[in-house]
Design brief:
The longest helix is centred in the first third of the chain and has 19 residues, at 3-21. Helices cover 4% and strands 62% of the residues. The chain is mainly beta. The protein folds into two domains: 3-111, Immunoglobulins (Immunoglobulin-like, Sandwich); 239-810, Maltoporin, Chain A (Beta Barrel), CATH 2.40.170. The chain is built from four helices and 48 strands. It has a 22-stranded antiparallel beta barrel. Strands 8-9-13-14-12 form a five-stranded mixed β-sheet, with no helix packed on it. Strands 3-2-5-6 form a four-stranded antiparallel β-sheet.
């Protein structure tokens, strides 16, 4: 065990001796206080060491350590002292020859990670963005040049372990069952679980992303893959400060974002507001070849699809923290998002008989969508003392209303079918969809330190969510030309999800060993009511399997968590994590009424879906050298009743239906390796590789969907600091091929480039970036069933994306990126045993 580990005990011993030799009653004393913070992530540094040495008598040493909020308070006799603030792997800060004749408050002391160049007391190093903690990894993405002017989804796509696919779906270690949180809570900002909303939020609103692969009991048990917690910017600097960002690019892309903060001793007022307009052209093709036993009229159907999107989004988040006392505060925030989207999808279909083109059609779908979301949140915190004893309470209400109007028409381009009796009906459609969603959250958390190295926590969280979907389908009467209501498919779906949770956890540290044990109890209530003109028997016949039109299901589960850390040295440790988690089906996975992307492709929910459960194990290893950081882990996950999307053709029809079902189990084994290399001040290299194997077993409709495959993905990022304050960044990502339960998916490589330069005395930065330089972010897959074979290629956004961005900071100091410390937070919020 090193001297640094013993230093707090040695200082405490000297402090005790001083108190015995120089009784406080006999001498006047004054208080030296302050707060120690990480200068980049702006989080408190707990157990930072404060040494106070009398300049006239170097043997007169006293001091102490910071608490969970980074605060220290030390009493000394009048005199002149040298004060040193230290933390493992960080640069020290010295305050020499301070004469103490009254109380001294040193204010906020920001420490940066140590560097080989010790010519100055404080050295800022341009290095890594990652902080490794007991139950998570924290990535500071504020300086990622390739995402300037981009969205939250763009930013997440550069975070190790995370993958954002062509459709915007987010996965963690290759598993899409990931929980998205905003500032530690479910939020309307994340679209009630609809990750497409993250394409509307600006990347520069993010301060950091927490990748939590082994969540403690404090967190929701939702998400079998783990949790992504997005922390938004909220400065705490005294006075008025902020930043303004302007960006534009091609395809048509323009936006403005402002982030301002005003803080006094009594309150902190903050706001982030942004507007974004963008056009994201996408598309692809579907080439389906039907086998002889399919019963389909055509042998092959080729669909060429173009999508033209025009989106206008406005977001604002206004909040104020009011300090009731020195130990307590209340924070209120209001978030509002509105969006107006206009999409035109053109689907050109060619139907083949043999090798000959028989029939060609063009289907145009115009969709106009308006979305309005509100979120109101209150947070109360009371710190009973400076040792971390505290109580927090939260209330959150969110409401979202989305209206969608879809007009569909189709026309015949050519008809080479000689059969005079052949008819291909053409009729227009009008679809009106209204979705109303409301969610309440009530939460309370209590933290009780026990001694100097242990902590107990307990809390309650209640989530109450309701989604009401009203779907109306009008179809053209081919004889009269009038639009008439299709009563068979028009429906109302009322879905409710209520979750009550209680948790407790206990953590402690013994020398080099830390542990955090937790248990969470969750009761889930899923209720659904489907109102339509169809009877249960007709629904069963239409959908091909029995369904429940009215269900009320309760699930009670215990979710234990274990997180262990063993420190092999100051810069080396081993971690072990275990957790049990749940994956609840979302409303669009349950609604049985189909949504169509073309005449031949529909998605249909399954109201029979049940929650999936998983048990996961994770072993990690971390080692730091002077210029190199190595992170690695091996993980295993066993999921029961896992969700899987199944494709099947509708009997006697060319329509292909995609349906989510519960399969028996999914086993996933994998390994991660990350390397952060900073050989010089002007070069930073970052790479990570994730390799995993999955095995799926299960049957549906008396057919086996067993599958076994391996896949991998890798990232590489380099940042070079050039002369004239110019930075050059390169990001590359490769996703390997994989086999699924019904086919194969091809791999792809993508490349992003960016340049930036500081201007106006470092108060502003201008950057230029190009995303998807190779125009290669495409999903290519081959699906094979017993009736057809289909090859698909799809791009959510076609072509290269060019963007130029200007950010201007006022009353802010530009922070450089640097190595983050090896953290040991046991609950992710400041406890370090």
């Amino acid at each position: 065990m090193t001297t640094k580990i013993y230093k707090p005990l040695i200082l405490a011993f000297f402090l005790l001796i001083n108190l015995l030799v120089y009784p406080q009653s006999a001498n006047e004393t004054f208080e030296i206080s302050g707060k120690v913070m990480d200068d980049e992530l702006e989080v408190p540094l707990e157990y930072a060491t404060v040494s106070i040495v009398n300049t006239n008598n170097p043997q007169d040493v006293t001091g102490g350590v910071t608490n969970g909020k980074g605060i220290f308070k030390i009493n000394v006799s009048p005199g002149t002292y040298n004060i040193v603030v230290e933390f493992i792997s960080y640069e020290s800060k010295k305050f020499n020859n301070r004469t103490i004749s009254s109380d001294l408050n040193l204010g906020t002391i920001e420490l940066g990670l140590s560097s080989d160049n010790l010519d100055e007391v404080i050295v800022t190093a341009e290095t890594t963005q990652v902080s490794i903690q007991l139950d998570k990894k924290v990535y500071n993405i504020g300086k990622d040049l390739t995402t300037a002017g981009g969205t939250v989804s763009d930013a997440l796509s550069n975070v190790p372990s995370v993958n954002v696919d062509i459709d915007g779906a987010i996965s963690l270690r290759g598993n899409e069952n990931v929980r998205i949180l905003i500032n530690g809570k479910p939020s309307a900002m994340a679209g009630f679980g609809d990750t497409n909303v993250l394409n509307q939020l600006p990347a520069d609103a993010i301060e950091r992303v927490e990748v939590i692969t082994s969540p403690s009991a404090r967190y929701d048990a939702e998400g079998t893959a783990g949790i992504l917690n997005i922390i938004l910017r909220q400065k705490e600097t005294l006075g008025f400060n902020g930043s303004l960002t302007l960006n534009g690019g091609t395809p048509a892309n323009a936006g403005v974002s402002a982030n301002v903060n005003y803080r006094t001793e009594k309150f902190n007022l903050f706001n982030t507001t942004s507007f974004r307009y963008f056009d994201a052209p996408g598309g692809g093709y579907f080439d389906t070849k039907y086998f002889e036993n399919s019963g389909v009229q055509f042998d092959r159907i080729y669909e060429d699809r173009d999508i033209d999107r025009v989106n206008r989004n406005f977001n604002t988040n206004l909040g104020m923290e009011y300090f009731l006392t020195e130990q307590s505060s209340i924070t209120g925030t209001i978030f509002y998002r509105t969006g107006e989207d206009e999409d035109l999808t053109t689907n050109k279909t060619t139907n083949y008989l043999g090798d000959e083109e028989a029939l060609g059609t063009t289907r145009r779908e115009k969709e106009k969508e308006n979305d309005n979301s509100w979120q109101f949140a209150l947070n109360y915190i009371n710190n009973f003392n400076d040792e971390g004893h505290k109580l927090t309470a939260d209330f959150q209400f969110e409401t979202d209303k989305e209206t969608k109007i879809t007009n569909i028409n189709e026309e015949i381009d050519f008809n080479n079918i000689a059969d005079e009796d052949f008819e291909y009906p053409l009729f227009g459609e009008l679809i009106n969809t209204t979705e109303d969603q409301k969610e309440y959250l009530i939460q309370a958390d209590y933290v009780l330190p026990i001694g100097e190295s242990s902590q107990f926590e307990a809390g309650y969280r209640g989530n109450f969510e309701n989604k009401f979907t009203d779907y109306e389908l009008f179809q053209e009467n081919v004889e009269t030309g009038d639009l008439e209501l299709n009563t068979q498919l028009t429906n109302v779906f009322d879905y409710t999800e209520n979750v009550h949770a209680l948790y407790s956890q206990y953590g402690s540290k013994f020398g080099m060993f830390s542990f955090l044990l937790g248990l969470r109890l969750e009761n889930t209530n899923l209720k659904g009511d489907i109102d339509s003109e169809l009877t249960d028997a007709e629904l069963e016949e239409a959908f091909g399997f029995p369904i429940e039109t009215n269900f009320d299901d309760d699930y009670l589960g215990l979710f234990p968590t274990v997180n262990l850390t063993f420190e092999l040295g100051e810069k080396e440790n081993i971690t072990l994590g275990y957790n049990r988690r749940i994956n609840r089906p979302r409303s669009w996975f349950i609604n049985p009424f189909p949504s169509r992307s073309s005449n031949n492709n529909v998605f249909q929910g399954n109201p029979n879906l049940k929650p999936a459960y998983s048990n996961a194990f994770d072993i990690g290893y971390l080692k730091r050298w002077k210029t190199l950081t190595l992170t690695s882990s091996v993980y295993y996950q066993h999921e029961t009743d896992s969700f899987e999307r199944i494709e099947e053709s509708v009997e006697g029809s060319s329509v292909i239906r995609t349906l989510p079902v519960n399969l028996a189990e999914n086993k996933r084994t994998g390994a991660e390796l990350g390397v952060l290399y900073n050989p010089t001040d002007w070069l930073r290299l970052n790479t990570s590789v994730n390799f995993f194997q999955f095995k799926t077993e299960g049957d549906f409709n008396e057919k086996s969907y067993d599958a076994e495959s391996t896949s991998w993905f890798a990232r590489f990022s380099s940042k070079v600091s050039l002369p004239a304050k110019i930075d050059w960044q390169t990001n590359a990502f490769y996703r390997g091929a994989a086999e699924g339960v019904q086919g194969d998916r091809e791999g792809y490589l993508s490349l992003d480039l960016a340049l930036s330069k500081d201007i106006f005395n470092d108060n502003a930065t201008i950057s230029v970036n190009v995303r998807d330089v190779l125009d290669s972010r495409k999903r290519e897959s081959l699906t094979t069933t017993n009736t057809y074979e289909r090859f698909t290629e799809f791009q959510w956004r076609k072509g290269q994306n060019f963007n130029i961005s200007l950010i201007y900071r006022f009353n802010q100091q530009k922070h450089e990126q640097r190595k983050s410390r090896e953290g040991d937070d046991m609950d992710g919020e400041g406890f370090e045993g």
